[in-house]
Amino acid sequence: MKRIFSCVVCLAVAASLFGCGGGSTGSGAGAAATTGAAAASGAQGSDAGSQGGAAVSGEAAGQGAAVSDQPAGQGAPAAPEAAPGAGAASGKGLKAAIVFNGPVADGSWNADCYEGMLALESEYGYEIAFTENVDISDYLTAFRDYAAAGYDLVIGPGAEFQDAVMEIYQEFPDTMFAGINFSATAKNVSALNYDNYQAGFLFATLAGLMTKTDSVGYIYSMEIQPILDSIEGAKQGLEYTNPGCKLSIAGVGSFNDVAKAKELALSQITTANVDVIMPWAAAAGIGILEACIEKGATLVYGPVEGLAYSDKIDGCVIMSNSGVIKKIGADVAAGLDEGYEFVGDVSNGVIHFGNMSDRVSEEDKAFMQSVVDGLISGEIVIDKGAH
């Protein structure tokens, strides 16, 4: 039975969802950048833009991609602050690009990254570009082409891009490369990271509160370090919130195998009596949502707001990609000349609970806030050496 404490999926129908920890694998080819109005005419929406792998710059990019416009979480903290003295710096004359291995208009991970790019354009004056649906075999070319074209900041929105960046960064000392969930830094490579243990802890806190069967599931895309860290955080979060609750874990082995993800979710629901699932499955997550709709289970959603997409979503855990991209853009505009690591967590507001469904009681919300407070104060300590 659930312990009672006195103190605790965005469905992008045409694209992908549940992008925690990395993007979805696309099938695009090259990474040649196209700028200005010419790019807009060649990119009628995100799908058309992805066909040739062309990058769209500036305002044209915004017109060619339907990015997420979900509101921030209720009472959500502001985006992370830039480095001291960087807030008012201008990026006018600077160029920033980002490489996606899935569609930019995924309503989730990639879309939030793109919101950050749009902020670099509107708030700092950057010229921006992106390439979507880049195949893994073309990562190196995509990053090299942007750096060779004189881009000042080139971003990889997931750990899967690190190898490509670390292979070429020394060739382009005047370009700052930045990667979300990177484990390495260098003179001109910055790592924009999350405390994925904390994110997993929050996901499991909500799942542990919402389950009625004391059996919850976690389905992930690929076995990469950020996801492994979040799994360990989820184990400890579930134990803290609902001791004795069973946790079923399954890996899809792909960022975009919708059928396999649905099969795994149906199996958890029907054989392990799972009634709440935590998906970290990128584009494959749509299959998990389909299974929940068919069988009456629910989801804990992230890394952006997604409550409006389905009544099967209990609530959201936010990991602000747009915030960390704004931070690195502000720092580069201020003259950053040394790569660094930034870690977003609950203490700086990059990771936080978002909007909640009506199924989440006020008592549950109070407990969730106590968990956040405990992580910030150190009263709750996650054992990061447990796996």
Features:
single chain, 387 residues, alpha/beta, Rossmann fold, 8-stranded mixed sheet, 6-stranded mixed sheet, 12 helices, globular
First and last CA, distance: 27 Å
Oligomer: single chain
Rg over CA atoms, rounded to whole Å, is 20 Å
Name the CATH class of the largest domain: Alpha Beta
Low-confidence stretches: 1-17, 21-88
Number of helical elements: 12
Largest sheet: 8 strands, mixed
Nearest-integer average pLDDT = 82
Order of helical and strand elements? EHHEHEHEHEHEEHEHEHEHEEHEEH
User: Numbering strands along the chain, what is their spatial order in the largest sheet?
Assistant: 1-2-4-3-5-6-7-13
Describe this structure in words.
The chain is an alpha/beta fold and 387 residues long. It is globular and about 55 Å long. The chain is built from 12 helices and 14 strands. It has 2 domains: 180 residues, Rossmann fold (3-Layer(aba) Sandwich); 150 residues, Rossmann fold (3-Layer(aba) Sandwich). α7 packs antiparallel against α12. The N terminus is likely disordered. β3, α4 and β4 form a beta-alpha-beta unit. The chain has an 8-stranded mixed beta sheet, sandwiched between helices. Strands 9-8-10-11-12-14 form a 6-stranded mixed beta sheet, sandwiched between helices.
